[in-house]
RNA helicase
Amino acid sequence: QVYVVFSEELQCWCRALVESVRHQADGCQLRCFLVDYAKYCSVASENIRVLAGAFAKIPYRAKKCRLHCTKPLTLHIDYCENTAKIGPAKRWDTAAIQHFRKLLE
């Protein structure tokens, strides 16, 4: 379900999908995906509202997606043998993410 949350970073109300809820002493923190900005943010529970009917039907400007059959790779360096090989990684390197974003721009 899509909600409306107040983003401190953007200083405006945005449509968002709630990813997770974290309970804290002073209330709940919600991790949200902003569907019109393709950003993740944390929002206090008092800054979330139910989305009015007509606004829920407007298509999202951003979508979460993955590259089909593309796995992250990284450079594995063996200092003892003085070799470097490209191999599988658990996550994408920061440099690879930045390079991909530049290609998209």
